[in-house]
Design goal:
Strand order of the largest sheet: 4-5-7-6-10-11-12-13
Distance between the termini: 48 Å
CATH architecture of the largest domain: 3-Layer(aba) Sandwich
Order of helices and strands: EEEHHEEEHEEEHEHEEHEHH
Shape: globular
Oligomer: single chain
Number of domains: 2
Helix content: 25-40%
Length: 375
């Protein structure tokens, strides 16, 4: 939405849930009850938006929740007394996101996979106990710094965020085998390397978060994974794997991911795809998914719509018939941007939409903290 002009095509999607209708097309409408009254209210909102008197955030449209905003203090006028120091805020209850906070300084960390790759990652640990953990996965040829604005934004909302350089990318380019150090590069990667990201890289990151869970920093049972382009394929395959983890000494493991965000998901990357993964139990009513794409890219749009269709089909086959909650959401933004550029662009408000999705599908859900087995 342009504040200085009429409505713009932020989302070209129609999404209905719980008796309400959300439309972002050539007009912009808030969530309102269907029917004659709803139409009148919708038209009034569109007129106000066009007049620059109303601004509707995409996050609200997607998730029916206004994301928390970080307050920016205003400078005092010359000669005015300085404002009194702020009273310390009481601690938030477990799992609740902070209403107003700033992104924490990340810890730069490293874990070594079973096949000897040093995976570098940035970790934004929330001060909120049992916070929602979010893993951000970059695209092919990218690096974790591509998603730094997203990590900082989600951290400021009270989430604990992990952003790794997947093998062959960024700083994760060294593998030790039989005493020799091998340099890895994304330029020569194939299907086996993408599979290794799922089997080894993501397993180590997950195990790191299991330990954080046991310290009550996060609630691993509210895990959200966000993947952009290649990272979307890694994310989908990891979710499928997470729901098929074997028990250890009669203790259950896995089934942690409850929300998934896929930005500009490709149909395949270097021979790897998620076609088999989408048939696994995780996608039969267990995981909420948000798919976002830049609508001006025909190939990207077609790939995203195809994946939406597949996930919707499987989600409906296993979903709770009494639930009015839509498990697969789709948002097409009127832009040529894709991947990390689409997600990290502050003008498109997709970061706020993702946080709204997390608030609605994870923060507001009663998912108890459980101690986990970590290795």
């Amino acid at each position: 939405m342009d504040r200085g002009g009429g409505p713009t095509d932020l989302f070209r999607a129609i999404y209905s849930e719980g008796g309400g209708i959300v439309v972002y097309e050539k007009s912009c409408r808030q969530i309102f009850p269907a029917g004659r009254l709803g139409k009148l209210v919708g038209r009034a909102l569109v007129w106000l938006a066009a007049a620059g008197l109303l601004f509707v955030a995409p996050a609200l449209a997607l998730a029916q929740a206004t994301p928390p905003q970080v307050a920016t203090p205003k400078a005092a006028p010359p000669g005015a007394a300085a404002p009194p120091a702020a009273t310390p805020r009481p601690a938030a209850p477990p799992g609740a996101a902070a209403e107003e906070s700033a992104a924490v300084e990340p810890k730069e960390m490293s874990v070594t996979t079973e096949d000897g790759v040093a995976i570098k990652f940035s970790y934004y640990a929330s001060a909120t106990p049992e916070s929602v953990p979010v893993i951000l996965l970059h695209g092919g040829g990218g690096k974790r710094d591509d998603l730094r604005p997203v990590a900082e934004y989600l951290s400021a909302q009270g989430h604990s965020v992990v952003v790794p350089d997947l093998r062959g990318h960024g700083e994760s380019t060294e593998q030790t085998k039989a005493g020799r150090t091998i340099t890895l590069s994304y330029k020569t990667q194939n299907r086996n390397d993408i599979n290794a990201m799922v089997l080894h890289d993501m397993t180590k990151i997950w195990n790191f978060l299991l330990n954080e869970n046991n310290e009550k920093v996060v609630n691993i049972k509210k895990l959200c994974v966000v993947g952009v382009d290649m990272g979307a394929i890694v994310a989908v395959n990891f979710v499928a794997k997470n729901y098929t983890e074997k028990d250890y000494r009669n203790q259950p493991r896995g089934k942690d991911v409850k929300a998934l965000v896929l930005v500009s998901p490709p149909s395949a990357y270097r021979g790897a795809s998620c076609s088999e993964a989408t048939k696994q139990p995780a996608f039969k009513g267990q995981v909420s998914t948000l798919i976002a794409v830049g609508d001006d890219g025909a190939t990207e749009r077609n790939n995203a719509k195809q994946l939406e269709s597949i996930l919707t089909k499987f989600a409906e086959s296993g979903a709770n018939k009494d639930s009015k909650e839509k498990l697969v959401l789709y948002a097409a933004l009127k832009t040529k941007l894709q991947g990390a550029q689409l997600l990290a662009n502050p003008q498109l408000k997709l970061m706020a939409a993702v946080d709204g999705f997390i608030q609605k599908r994870l923060v507001e859900k009663n998912i108890p903290w459980v101690k986990q087995i970590a290795f």
